[in-house]
Design the sequence.
């Protein structure tokens, strides 16, 4: 064994993190040696806290330290607009943009017959219940443009289409700053389909 | 605050690691949520253990969980050959190569007048004491080829040159697989200077 046992162990834990290989894990573990004592304590506590304190919001399914997440309990937000997303990472992305003032519903998955994931295996039933309680509900489906994403989008649309729910999806199109020449044909086709009238 | 408090804290600790930026720290922290409970416990314990258990070997200055490191207490190694290195990372590199069977001496720094680091500020006095106890000592100076490295190499050479100590340094030269055309001129010059007779 080249490394002292405790260092070897720490290297192995760093290796469990995504994108961290052998060489990088060694570097991280060695750098940990130079951490201040209080930082080591804090780091170890933070690891445990994240696992112990964070659970799912009982309304939207997003990560939260409380029974109801800060977004669902924020009365200044519009609770009639629900953005339906695949996982909590999307919530963080939307919140970083900071322009969305509705609430969310985290599906924790997408319908995928190939993987035996049906509508009952994702957080859909609670969405139906939520929407039923609202007066003029609006759903924004923000799911990715894969087979699973499209299937789930269509499924949700079917559930709500006769229930007087306004349903939209995110627009497809050209990413900002991208060269049109280098765009894949499907994206270009979608951008053409989703074209928007230029207002004066 | 976009992230739950405990997640935000963990992200900040990951950001303290070398080469881990904001985006990457978020990714690592979120992936930690999917760790098994025992892995979180183990990770937290490993962090503390590395800081609490690891100290410097009282002979060579290398990292060790014991008073004397496994290398210094290994009787099958040649204790008359001491490889002098800047820091413990070099020990791990040499041990990975696996072809060196002498022992080490970790300087924990290099002489650098510009940074006010003199011979007394690095782990040199104990090297002199170690060498005095040996019969036919051999020193291999494995320091980097910077001004500080060269200065330290020359200084050590001066200390020992009249004391019947065989002193060598690592050879400079072309890295394996490198294209000669693309080599910097200093390396090429050193490779010429350190040229080796081709034995039959």
Sequence:
């Amino acid at each position: 064994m080249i490394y002292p046992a405790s260092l070897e162990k720490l290297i192995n834990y760093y290796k469990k993190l995504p994108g961290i290989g052998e060489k990088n894990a060694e570097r991280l573990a060695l750098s940990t040696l130079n951490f201040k004592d209080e930082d080591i304590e804090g780091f170890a506590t933070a690891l445990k806290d994240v696992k112990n304190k964070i659970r799912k919001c009982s309304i939207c399914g997003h990560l939260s330290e409380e029974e109801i997440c800060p977004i669902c309990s924020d009365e200044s937000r519009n609770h009639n607009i629900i953005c339906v997303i695949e996982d909590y990472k999307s919530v963080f992305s939307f919140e970083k943009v900071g322009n969305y003032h509705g609430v969310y519903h985290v599906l924790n998955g997408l319908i995928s017959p190939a993987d035996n994931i049906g509508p009952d295996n994702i957080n859909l039933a609670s969405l139906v219940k939520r929407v039923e309680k609202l007066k003029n509900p609006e759903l924004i489906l923000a799911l990715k443009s894969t087979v699973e994403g499209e299937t789930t989008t269509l499924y949700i649309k079917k559930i709500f289409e006769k229930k007087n729910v306004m349903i939209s999806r995110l627009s497809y199109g050209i990413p900002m700053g991208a060269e049109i020449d280098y765009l894949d044909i499907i994206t270009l086709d979608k951008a053409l389909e989703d074209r928007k009238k230029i207002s004066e």
Q: What stands out?
A: The CA atoms of residues 174 and 180 of chain B lie 8 Å apart. Chain B has a mean pLDDT of 91.
